[in-house]
Amino acid sequence: MNAHKVIFCKTNTLKLLWTSGRRSWINRLHDGVCGRVQASFSSCSPKVCIVGGGPAGFYTAQHLIKARQDLEVDIYERLPVPFGLVRFGVAPDHPEVKNVINTFTQTAQHSRCCFYGNVNVGQDLGVEELRRAYHAVVLSYGAEGNRSMGVPGEHLAGVHSAKDFVGWYNGVPSNRELNPDLSYETAVVLGQGNVALDVARILLSPIDTLKTDITQAALEALAESQVRRVLIVGRRGPMQVACTIKEVREMVNLPGTRPEMVGAEFEGVAEALKELPRPRKRLTELMVKAALEIPGEKERARRGEVSRSWGFRFFRSPVEVLAAPDQTRVTGIRLAVNRLEGSGEGARAVPTGEVEDVTCGLLISSIGYKSLPIDPSVPFDSRRAIVPNTMGRVQQAAGLYCSGWLKTGPTGVIATTMNNSFDTARTLLEDIDSGTLDVSAAKPGSQGVSALLEERGVKPVTFSDWEKIDNEETRRGEAMGKPREKLLVVEEMLQVARA
Question: Quick one: residue 246, left, alpha or beta (phi over 0 = left, psi -120 to 50 = alpha)?
Answer without folding.
Answer: alpha
